[in-house]
Amino acid sequence: MKLPWAEPFKIKMVETIQQSTAEERAKWIEDADFNLFNLKSEQVYIDLLTDSGTGAMSDKQWAEIMTGDESYAGSRSFEKLKSTIQDITGFEYVLPTHQGRAAENVLFSALIKEEMIVPGNSHFDTTKGHIEFRKARAIDCTIEEAFDIENPHPFKGNIDLNKLEEVYKTYPKEKIPFCLITVTCNTSGGQPVSMENIKAVRELSNKYDIPVYFDAARYAENAWFIKQREESCKSMSIPEIVKEMFSYGDGMTMSSKKDGLVNIGGFVALNNEEVFTVASNFTIIFEGFITYGGMAGRDMAALAQGLRESSNEQYLESRVGQVEYLGNKLMEFGIPIQKPIGGHAIFVDAKKFLPNVPKEEYIAQTLGIELYKEAGVRGVEIGTLLADRDPDTRENRYPKLELLRLAIPRRTYTNNHMDYIAVALKNVYDRRDEITSGYNIKWEAPIMRHFTVKLEKS
Question: Could you tell me what percent of the chain has a pLDDT over 90?
Fold first, then answer.
């Protein structure tokens, strides 16, 4: 008999989480102005708001915490981190930052000017926010298959080369600072980008003399999907796939709170010395000196170790496998989710789940609130609230997909928790016809409103 699969780790420490009553949760979410971000952590039983910085570090990472060098300049921990990033990615220059959006702030300050155009595959919220804050514009060039949740396309994060070339033909190259490839593509459902597509984007961009940069927060998960789904890469190791992926880019930003397996941190990695010099000055202005950039030495040391661990195939099988486990449970219940199942999260199609809620009343947010009230499970809306308003017309932007994301923290929950989540969502699904209204906005920030928005029942 074949032995069943088991996790490639054992648990050394546990953290207590508390159940609550439906009455308590109904009051708490109302007090939070129906914004899931405003809930206190102790009011949440299973927290799937994000996989960013919410995972569990390994014993080896905790050991690195104890040996961190806290020197202001030229610390030993920075040298360890830099050499690790150079080895894994092939990029020569490294600027640490305190997290991913800080890395975007540093790099975009160096490269993006007013009225520029940044094409890419479904830019995430902070990415688009940083672009639009600079009065530039993000253009989504994702393949159309990504917007059909039933389409089994194995690489729904791919960039449509025809869409991209249309951007390159429409705007002068001086208006296009770079093309951005997000791996995996979070907004389209944690979907991977194929090696073939990455290479083709590089070749097309070379034709028009446009640099290529990666948003590489989940690069290891992307490499795992390439190995599993792309025939030409099946014999390659994960580190070999990662090195080839990045060989087609000019640089990258990284939120280390994802595939860096740490609770805080990020970095910019580059091959262009001129860009590095300009970005270094912004690092000093916004983050700190260029050899710590807002990170403690101990956190840089833990990150160096985490970057090594995230490329381990047994770890990736466990990590992606748990997400797949939850996705399969939901599909058994008939719940509409983005297929194929992505790497870091399950994305529930809120339009199909709640067909009676008007789009103007924030369907995915409504579903997230219902799931929280049902079982204390916190997800996050990837829909109209996150899409924000058009910077010119100030009208709501209605994305093609209205999704509730259930992001799974790394090495944190068991499959028993996944079973609980699945049944909780099924309970909401069973009463979906009773949910006919959503929420209106009481107050919102002028940009990236979803983090702090205040809502009221419609």
Answer: 96
**For 331-372, what is each residue's pLDDT tens digit?**
999 999 999 999 999 999 999 999 999 999 999 999 999 999
Report the alpha-carbon distance of residue 253 to residue 240 in Å, rounded.
20
Q: How far apart are CA 44 and CA 114, in angstroms?
A: 41
Residue labelled with tokens 């009051």: 27
Dihedral, 26, 30, 36, 41 alpha carbons, nearest 10: -70
Token readout for 201 is 């984007």
> How many CB atoms lie under 10 A from the CB of residue 184?
31
189 in Cβ contact with 342 (< 8 Å): yes
- Judge contact between 52 and 260, C-beta under 8 A: no
> Residue 235 CB: number of other CB atoms within 10 A?
8
- Reported as half-sphere exposure (CB side, CA atoms, 13 A), residue 418 has a value of 22
Determine the angle formed by the axes of helices 195-207 and 238-247, rounding to 10 degrees. Answer: 20
Give residue-wise pLDDT tens across range 205-227: 999 999 999 999 999 999 999 99
**Contact of 404 with 350, CB cutoff 8 Å:** yes
Strand partners, 140: 120
The answer for residues whose C-beta is within 8 angstroms of residue 37's C-beta and 6 or more apart is 49, 380, 450, 451, 452
The residues carrying an active-site annotation are: 72, 124-125, 215, 217, 258, 450
- Say how many C-beta atoms besides its own lie within 10 A of residue 219's C-beta: 27
What does the alpha-carbon distance between residue 55 and residue 59 come to, in Å, rounded to a whole number?
13
DSSP of 134-201: TT-EEEE-B-GGGG-TT---TTTT-B-HHHHHHHHHHS-GGG---EEEESSBTTTTSB---HHHHHHH
- pLDDT at residue 48, as a whole number: 98
* Structural contact between residues 189 and 146, judged by C-beta atoms closer than 8 angstroms: yes
Which run of H or of E encompasses 407?
strand 403-407
Q: Strands 46-47 and 377-378, how do they pair?
A: parallel
Angle at 426 (CA atoms; ends 20, 457), nearest 5 degrees = 65
The CB density around residue 394, as the number of other CB atoms within 10 Å, is 9
Task: Tell me the C-alpha distance between 258 and 382, whole Å.
Answer: 18
pLDDT for res 4: 87
354 backbone φψ class: left, alpha, beta (φ>0; ψ -120 to 50): beta
